[in-house]
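Exercise: predict the fold of this chain.
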Amino acid sequence: MDNIRGAVRKLIIAISKIERTYAARSSKFGSQASELWLMYTLDDGESHCQKQICAEWGMNKTTLNSVTKKCEAAGYLTLIPIPGKRRELQICLTEKGKAHAKQLLEQFNRAEDRAMEKTLKVYSTEFIDAVKYYGQCLYEEFNEETKSDEGK
């Protein structure tokens, strides 16, 4: 590719637009973006621990802890001790939480599905793997840069 910097900028602007879209829509539905992402994460039917959510979704521990407490107080989730882990808890949606997540995410899911259908008419699913690969490479390169800076 002739213009790597231009390609990177186009990709980052596109990712930024996606993030702004989610943030703007979450506030439209009276939800903080952090609550939306927590419901989105937990809506897959699996249990997750705080460490996993922070690693996969890039959510700040303090923010996740705050929104978890808020959602627990609202009856949307339960915290279950993980055997053998002293301080880690599984975060699971309650029935009330599942209903809340379904209601909160319904419009998001429909919009995402339609957007993906349009995209897949033009591009194969390989674009997802390519973005994922770029993200991993970027993570690794930033780690290398950090190591290089430490040696100076």
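Check your answer against the key: Helices lie at 4-28, 33-42, 50-57, 61-73, 95-122, 126-150.
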